[in-house]
Structures
1.
Amino acid sequence: MEYTSIFDSHAHYDDAKFDEDRDELISSLPSKGIIGVINCGADLKSSAQSVKLSEKYDYIYAAVGVHPHEAKNFGDDTLNELRRLAANKKVVAIGEIGLDYYYDFSPREKQIEVFEKQLILAAELNLPVIIHNRDAHEDTLNILKKHRPKGVLHCFSGSAETAREIVKLGMFIGLGGAVTFKNAKKPLEVAATVPDEFLLIETDAPYMAPVPFRGKRCDSAMIPYTAEKIAEVRNTTAQEILNLTAENAKRLFGID
Ligand code: NI
């Protein structure tokens, strides 16, 4: 089955896992139906690389931001550097930013401080945010209620109940390969219940490859497997899911 209108709202093609064949792979994606990719930064270096990729490829857009794992390295100048990068016209979001209490690679107080600084930057620049949240649902929700950004909870791992709270704030839910995994009960409940206008689809490439590629290097061409699973629980077709999520991504990120 050939699919079109695939918009991958979250990928990391700057990752070293693509060093061997990055250009060849990225050049091949439009022929597989991919019409858009948001390449997300996780620190200043990967944010700058995201901008470079977006300048090189028409259909790639960039998000710049500092991931909670890297929050401990967020210095006095980091915010200005992000502001400078965000001035590029292919930068469509601040991300990925958020909280990760599963790994706790940065102290939680520092994660919160850096998250809030970047939410304030996004508001200043009138850009949506791409949010990473792992095992920090309560703090994430409280901070979002305080700042009320536009944006998406990427690779959403919470309950259908939490998803409802997020949607009430006008934010999007990003679903990826996890919906295809065995024991995907929670993600499938979320996939079944998110309102049409708040659903996005993503890879988190090179991670989170959907079944039957689980554990392998992931790329945007694998999204149809995720779309098929989401379509199954929403009683529609994978192509309808791809059309819908592409429209939603363009609307959220201000892409024509
Ligand atoms: Ni990511």
2.
Amino acid sequence: MATRLGILTGGGDAPGLNAVIRAVARRSLDRGYEVVGVREGWAGLVESRFEPLGPREVSGLLPRGGTIIGTSRTNPFKIEGGAEAVLRNFGERLDALVTIGGEDTLGVAARLHEEHGLAVVGVPKTIDNDLSATDYTFGFDTAVAICTEAIDRLHTTAESHNRVMVVEVMGRHTGWIAVMSGIAGGADVILIPEQPISVEQACRELRHRHERGKDFSIVVVSEGYELTYESGERRTVTQDAATDAFGHVRLGGVGDALAQDIEERTGYETRVTVLGHVQRGGTPTARDRVLATRYGIKAADLVHEGRFGRMAALHGDEIVDVSLREATIELKTVPPAWYDVARAFFG
Ligand code: F6P
């Protein structure tokens, strides 16, 4: 009997998910596998919801954003009997699983593999680019391209009105999107979680810029930046206090708070743009399609070789494999050297 392979996408969606699904399925169908999609992340394995992924279903997917099999932030370890249901449904329906996700989804996969021997292989996904065992995650390049275009567009309206434009971008724990798009778009100040420079310092940079003859500025801030003041006060801005199944609060709103601070302290008229889920929507860049495809091929090959508990990763220009555990131990933060490049253009 052919191997039955499931594909699961978990966590926030990212452009390129469908390209991974296509690559895993095409490679595995060619080998005579039966391929099925697990609906909506770990929820689909808890509730036994599958759908066939044949040649017809995986056709035309390269330019398509989102994930055709759905996603969720379900954590089976937080549901009564959840992990047992996953193991039972997996045993009845599948022989192997490819899990495409970020630290949370892959963390569940690593645990199920280590504690229960689940035959699972991982593919790293997050627009935040904060997984430590890989140089880049797919989805990130697309998000950076979207943010860069937004910054370019904001320049012309900022200049016309002599305004400060604050752009809030995603990045829960790390400032990869802010730093990359800020460098590419020529931001005048970039605020990220890893380098909490103070609001006062940011305002000094803006004043300096205006003193040297510029009447407008662009400030890029990561949603996870903690408002930091020289008094020592620090403040994380969240939308509400509730947390998801992985203990994350819903971020968002730091841009507004920062804009208010800037306007009060400098007197410069300030506006805010929150890019939000626009950063995750729509078609992937060519670079993300290629990276996603290479990850998908690697994941299918790892399954075929029976090398479970591994994750496809990019090291330099090579696709390699690392242990799922290694991939989820720590976050990849923005190195100071990267921030220094951005900082060279502040003020
Ligand atoms: O995990 C990626 C991410 O883009 C974070 O930067 C952000 O905080 C989160 O997703 C928001 O996702 P959602 O609104 O889907 O919970």
3.
Amino acid sequence: MPMRWQEGAEKIAGLVRSHDGPLTRELVRKPGRFGLGQVPARLAPDAVARTICGFCSTGCGLKVHLRDGEACNVSPDPEYPVNRGAACPKGWESLAPLAAEDRATHPLVRGDDVALRETSWDAAMDRFVAGVRDVQSAHGAEAFAFLGTGQMPTEELMFLGSLAKFGLGMVHGDGNTRQCMATAVQAYKESFGFDAPPYSYRDFEESDVIVLVGANPCIAHPILWERVCRNPHAPEIIVIDPRRTETGEAATQHVALRPKSDLTLFYGVARALIERGAVDAEFVESHTRDYEAFERFVEDFDVDRVLEATGIDRAAFERLVDVIARGERVSFWWTMGVNQSHEGVRVAQSLIDLALLTGNIGRPGTGANSITGQCNAMGSRLFSNTTSLLGGRDFENADDRAEVASMLGLPVERIPDQRSLAYDEILEGVREGRIKGLWIVATNTAHSWIDQNDFHALREQLDFLVVQDMYPTTETARLADLFLPAAGWGEKDGTFINSERRIGRIRKLQRAPGEALADFQIFRLIAHAWGCTHLFEQWKTPEDVFDLMRRLSEGRPCDISGIEGYRMLEAAGGMQWPVRREATRDGALPDTDRRLFADGRFFHPDGRARFVFEAPRPVEEPTSDAYPFVLLTGRGSSAQWHTGTRTDKSATLRKLAPSETRLEIHPADAARLRVVAGDFVEIASRRDAMRVRVTVTAIVPEGSVFLPMHDARTNRLTFASFDPYSHQPSYKHAAVRVVRAADADGGSTD
Ligand code: SF4
């Protein structure tokens, strides 16, 4: 049962009193300074608190109902502009993960007997400092790196990245947004001049043509699918996906192309649109660059080449082109089917190219729109201080470093002058012996990273692994040398930024159990233990950090200087960036649904968007006689989230999810393998094998099979290839073989 916050306050006060080290004396003297003595004082015991869901990037508003000071129920917020009273099962079950029996309640340290054992916060901080310093002394400051998340509030992400780099001297850090959004980030930066998803969710309701690529919102973003269903214009809905997903089934056209043939398809569409005269010449002339080179480039993509590469028929191709050409308000949307690709950046940009070509940007119902994954992927992109400096700046730019140093009151030498390694490069650094320590915060690398066996082998090469999480039971936490127990969503304050750039306020509703602390407070403790508190004098509360974010953003594309604080955010029902200071000067609130580029000006210095393009490349692990199937992976159901660390805690969500992992296989392939629904097969890649029952379904195309990512075994099969520009892993293409389990055992059931 979740603890009542009054009881939690007493427990924490007891914890503070029970310590007697120098750190503890400081806590006792000024408990409020560390937030440990604070309770959610503004919430009455039977209040209804408004907050934002902590799972996906849709960013639904939720009402949390309190009884006797305890959060007892959740309902969707009918007044929040994103979801208007709807929520998917994960949102309704938001409280269940907080009450899980395996919540972390104490720091844990690995003893000489190799077991993780409870320890005090003082001892944990001593161990943290000693472990990091040992690695840095022996191998250099760069040898310790951190991996963060898109699940924490922006204020905590900014604190983590700033503490690690400016305080502890680390140079390298990245986050699990590398696994979901890095491709969109890179694509937007190159094409628009800044990482700037241009849309508002209202565009779903205003398009007359909606093109969804590698996206299955019925399952992955169900509230956004509801927005599509509210569209009063009877839109054409085109789903481009190898699988005939739930969304593909509901579409007006499903284009079932071969896996990873999308880039050729979109270049072919561009050529066909140009041939039809569907180019918005005035827009292209006034607001873009490099169109002529793009036009010459796509000449090579004639219909025959497209049909051969994609496997679709001529009528389907012509219909696709015709619908886009005739559409007046065409919007292009993509998610992981594009982002998680060996050439995802160029595919995303091919959709941006189509939007630019046809002038479908900056107007209602249009746009080249990436739907993000995690609840705070956008906050991570702008403020996590990982591969880009705070506010979307550049570590390698001296002016940017000086500006940040001045705003934060830091010596400029504290800011690294080199770009951080990306997630995959950090792990390569471990392989090469350049990275010897990792601090993993709120992400489950040992389940989610691609080619898991390789990651587990790399862990053996680390001298020191710190894991900070809500649960000591995750696959990653179990590998830790030091485990720090963290509060979860609902137990801390801050903000998230959703897919449409909307900043929403999340609320602390109850205390974390035992001695677990909000990540924000853990970072304060670490700063204190390390001896760098003086660098973070201004960082006492999440709202202090929000204020720093406002200052850092001023004059940038992501300007939020006009948001005067959490109370304004709450009153406005979330606010989309940009919100410049002058926009709210007289107490006004900007429109609740805004898109970018209505004036045709992009963020490159010349104000023009770029056509960016490159020849398609073959996948790095093609199918072969030995491994004839393509393995596709993705979300299993709307009741499941990533590695299941939270959704598996809810009995309701477990009932809504499939009771076991099933491999989807096409009926023709099943017949060839002589398996029927429910039979066991062995699926093997060059890296590992797993045994699983099959679901025989035409959802998957012939020659492909599908596994949900929620099973930890799935990523033992995946093949580690990466987009060269975004470094995002390509989870959706590996060569595998499938055989009947009986045949794999060497026997036969015939
Ligand atoms: Fe939460 Fe996303 Fe579901 Fe909305 S759609 S309730 S944000 S998980």
4.
Amino acid sequence: MQTTEKTALPLADLERIIREAAKLMLEADSARMHVEEKSGTANFVTEYDVRVQRTLQAAFSELLPGCGYLAEEEGESENAIGAGYTFIIDPIDGTTNFMLGRRASCISVALLEDSKTVYGAIYDPYADRFYMATAGGGAFCNGQPIHVSDREPLKGVAAIGTAPYYKETLSRPVTEIIYAMLQNFGDIRRVGSAALDLCDVACGVSVAYCEPILSPWDFAAGRLLVEEAGGIVTDMHGAPLPQDKPAGVLAASPKAYETLKKTVDAAMAACK
Ligand code: LIP
């Protein structure tokens, strides 16, 4: 069993729990599922988001009794991030893709110990890719080490997240970022799942990724994956990401980060 030096995390149990919960995604029928809208524009939640989260929480609480939660559906524990273990969960990242039957969604789970992220896992059940990282222990996909790209920006692909829940305020900045990305990178991609976008940076498929606003559960696991794979992750201003509040995200290989930061700065300047 892979473990970390400090806490000997039950990595095999964590993976088993996440893989088991993902079976709910694979059995879903996108044509028949119950969907509700949340605040913002095009911000959906399906019955499966809630079922997957409840399944994960029941199993995690049995595995690590007394753990806290900061999760997308049904809120957070009292004083979620503090002493002891806290799970930050996006039960289905890429909910719109999931609702539409576009097989580009995943489960994203970060585990903090005494407010420090010690574990991150993102599972894509459609491709059967289990991305995992531990603090100081490296990043892996299905047990094989992964590393960010060595490509020059113009020879690589950058991913963009369009923050569709905030279209009234962010459509123009996103448009400027896309325009600037097309000048400075080989091409762009829009996957529809922030966690999968971060996995693509961690395993070198993309050289960079930007999304002007995300929730903590969208990036908590992917941030650790990218950093443990040799990449750089910051907020839109180059500062470290917060743990428990929304932020814009820049993620890139060392060869592409400065280009990404300059691209975003130029786009923001064009919006003024
Ligand atoms: C989504 C992200 C996506 C972003 C959406 C939303 P959800 O997460 O993965 O990149 O553009 O606005 O935040 O809501 O599907 O868990």
